[in-house]
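Working notes for the structural subgroup meeting. M.R. asked for a predicted model of this chain before we commit to crystallization trials. I am recording the input and output together here so anyone reviewing the notebook later can reproduce the run.

Input as submitted:
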Amino acid sequence: MTPSKGWVGGAALAAASGLGLAFYANQVARTAESLVPADGRFLDVAGARLHYVDEGSGPAIVMVHGLSGQLRNFSYALLDLLKNEYRVILVDRPGSGYSTADAGTPPGLIAQGAMIAELITALKLDRPLLVGHSMGGAVALALALDRPELIRGLGLIAPLTQMQDTVPDVFRGLAMVPQSARLLFAQTIGTPLSKLTQGPVLAAVFAPEIAPDDFGIRGGGLLSQRPAAIAAASAELFGANTDLQRMVSRYGDLHVPTSILFGRQDAILDPGLHGHRIAAVVPGAKIETIEGGHMLPVTVPDATARFVRAAFAYGNTDRDLEKTRRNTI
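Returned structure, recorded in token form:
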């Protein structure tokens, strides 16, 4: 049967539309990368090439960003408050910023934890404090559960720690994209949709605070509109519960000094579910809640820096106790 002219015309129009959307997405990506270039160095680890910034001197702190974020979420304001006291390493997670994952299945939380562990080893860091924000908190927890000897403690800022029946409304569309269509969605519809909704999305993520006008460039927000970043975020939302299910039952065995900071008005992750629940089961965990929303490293950097310093000191207490124990044997 010969296809009708209408069917052929419709298929041609759809193909042309798809190519046009893909071209637009590529243009957005190139513009974002010209405005927000790579800031640091690159390190190859098993399964990924990691982009990281290494500034300051002194004892080390490694910082891991959240969903759809990148390392400028920390360098926006927090880095300058810490780098005169510590050596601060900011890391783009695979698929975010300028870090890339090898072809195949995107790395989950546990796999990303192993990648950060490899970076710590490659840079010869002496038991750094590991700081994780939002989904980066889950990655930090994954590392701490599997390689606790590598770090002195955890500083978790508004962390994802528990499985969720639903994702936050602002990310629900990303979580619903079928795995088989994820890359196609990201390369065509995802970027234009991200551009159209960037105002409401930022408002929701920063609520109740106001997103800074310069967050797109100074905070790296523009990079989240690239197709690769959209596909990575979708994959992470889709697969987070799988790894969290394996992690939650182990929290009671986590013997790493753990400090948690949450904003009381966090509209993305509930402080009771993701903060107080884990603090109740991790031995010795400390939790602090302050006025604020989800993006504390950007909106209240001074308070966040104080928290990081306190978390580092808490990790030192554990090291001092270990030294005392060894000296008495």
